[in-house]
Amino acid sequence: MKKLILSAAALALTAGFAAADGNTVRLGTEGAYAPWNFINDAGEVDGFERELGDELCMRAELECTWVTNEWDSIIPNLVSGNYDTIIAGMSITDERDEVIDFTQAYTPPDPSAYLAMSTDVDLEGGVIAAQATTIQAGFIAEKGWTLVEYATPEETVAAVRNGEADAVLADKSFLDTHNGVDGLVMLERMEAIGGGVGMGVRESDGELRAKFDAAIQSMKDDGTLNTLIAKWEVSSQW
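Predicted structure:
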């Protein structure tokens, strides 16, 4: 995570900030983290955050387009101007907030869960997989456990399945899609980490952040956001 943050800071100094082009806003997402965001059979961004992003843009009276970007460079490419927001299941953390700004959270913190091939796995003495530069990877590192990082969330699950890791730590909503498949089981232990999920924007784009903040609040106020959260089962409700 530190490498990601430092790279973003360097880009901020050298590339400057690109403001949103009029009312056209490019929404950056990973497209590989179901049910939050994924690519459907038609090759389009889909999932909770696709529906959420489209609704927020409508309420903010913004024309929006979608851009996909790999997770490990998603903050640097926001800062360098390749898109105008991040809407990719990104937890709000103090470290990330040093480089970019966040809207208010659009979901409460999602519990982090463990998936393994057996319920009696030794987490402290085992090898734990996590996606690189995530809050889960940081949590495992802080615990002093043996961490193995992968570029994509699917690779972390595959590592458990093929014996490269004893368990994977990730958002429970993501691991729910793999629980019970090919012998994978969810452990009872959960971790409460992260400060909720919000949209990331460049520090120079305060006006854009304010528009999305107002749109998120309006969805909270009329219950639309809770309906969407329940539909996709990504988090607890507000």
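Summary: The chain has a mean pLDDT of 91.
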